[in-house]
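TICKET: design request
STATUS: open
ATTACHED STRUCTURE:
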C-alpha cells in the first residue's frame, strides 16, 4: 500500500508491533517518512531486516516500558504517537481459567496500555500535540465464549481511552479507539480453530494487516481532529452471510 500521510521527522512507539497490525503500521509509518519504534516481547527478524528499531519489552513490566520509552526519547528527541497494540487472546472456559492466566491477560492487554501511556504522555504533553491509539475488539460488545478475559480487557480499554481523552484534551493530546475488523494475524490464527477461521476466510471480508494502515495513519495524523472517538473499521461482518440476512 502506498502511504498517503506524511510523518516526516516524527516518532511513533508501537507496542506489540513485531507482528500483524502493529508491524504493518510500523512499516507504513517508516514509508511515510517517520521513525517507528517497536516494543514487543518477541522482536521480529523481518522488521529488523527492514531497519525498524525494536526493543524487547514485556508491556506488563512497567519499569521496562518506561526504560524503553526513555531510550526512544534519548535517541530521537521526541515521541509524536503511540499505538498501544500488544495483546494476548487466550481461549479458555471461565471455569478452567486459573488466576495467573486471567491476570496475565489483563496485565498485557490493559495494564500494558496504561504503562505505555504513562511513559509516553509527558513527552506528548511537552510537545502539546500527539496521538494515542488503542485497539478495542468487536468482542467487547458482542462477547465470545471462552474469550472472557480478552473481551473484558477490550471493554475496559474503551472506558479507559474515553477517560484519558478527557483528561489530556487540554494538552492537545488525542486519544482514540480503533476497532480494526477481523484481520488475519498470528493472534487471529492462534485464537481461532480451523473451522472458526474458515468462517471468516471463506468470505471476502477478512482483512490483511495492511488494511488497517489507512485508519491508523489517519488517527495518528492531524487530519484526525478528533479525540475520545471510536473508529470502527468493518468488512468481515458486513460480508458474512449473517449480515446479508441468510439467518433471518
Ligand atoms: N486481528 C484481529 O482480527 C483483531 C481484531 C480486533 C482487535 N485486534 C487487536 O489489534 C491489536 C493487534 O493485534 P494483531 O491481531 O495484529 O495481533 P498479533 O498477534 O499479530 O500481534 C500482537 C503482538 O503483541 C505482542 N505481545 C504479546 N504479548 C506481549 C507482551 N507481554 N509485551 C509486548 N508485546 C506482546 C506479540 O508478540 C505480537 O507481536 C491487538 O490489540 C488485538 O487485540 C485484532
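STATUS: resolved
RESOLUTION: sequence designed for all positions
ATTACHED SEQUENCE:
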Amino acid at each position: 500500500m502506498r502511504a498517503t500521510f506524511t510523518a516526516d521527522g516524527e516518532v511513533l512507539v508501537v507496542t506489540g508491533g513485531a507482528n500483524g497490525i502493529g508491524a504493518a503500521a510500523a512499516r507504513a509509518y517508516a514509508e511515510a517518512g517517520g521513525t517507528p519504534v517497536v516494543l514487543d516481547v518477541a522482536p521480529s527478524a523481518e522488521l529488523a531486516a527492514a531497519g525498524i528499531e525494536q526493543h524487547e519489552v514485556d508491556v506488563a513490566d512497567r519499569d521496562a516500558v518506561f526504560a524503553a520509552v526513555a531510550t526512544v526519547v534519548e535517541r530521537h528527541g521526541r515521541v509524536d504517537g503511540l499505538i498501544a497494540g500488544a495483546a494476548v487472546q487466550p481461549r479458555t472456559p471461565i471455569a478452567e481459567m486459573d488466576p495467573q492466566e486471567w491476570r496475565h491477560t489483563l496485565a498485557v492487554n490493559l495494564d500494558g496500555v496504561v504503562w505505555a501511556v504513562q511513559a509516553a504522555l509527558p513527552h506528548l504533553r511537552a510537545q502539546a500535540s500527539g496521538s494515542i491509539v488503542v485497539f478495542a475488539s468487536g468482542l467487547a460488545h458482542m462477547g465470545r465464549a471462552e474469550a472472557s478475559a480478552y473481551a473484558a480487557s477490550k471493554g475496559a480499554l474503551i472506558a479507559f481511552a474515553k477517560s484519558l481523552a478527557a483528561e489530556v484534551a487540554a494538552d492537545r493530546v488525542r486519544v482514540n479507539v480503533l476497532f480494526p475488523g477481523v484481520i488475519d494475524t498470528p493472534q487471529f490464527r492462534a485464537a481461532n480453530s480451523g473451522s472458526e477461521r474458515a468462517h471468516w476466510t471463506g468470505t471476502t471480508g477478512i482483512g490483511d494487516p495492511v488494511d488497517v494502515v489507512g485508519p491508523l495513519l489517519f488517527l495518528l495524523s492531524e487530519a484526525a481532529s478528533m479525540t475520545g472517538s471510536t473508529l470502527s473499521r468493518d468488512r468481515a461482518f458486513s460480508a458474512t452471510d449473517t449480515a446479508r440476512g441468510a439467518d433471518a
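CLOSING REMARK: The CA atoms of residues 195 and 201 lie 10 Å apart. Residues 99-127 form the longest helix (29 residues).
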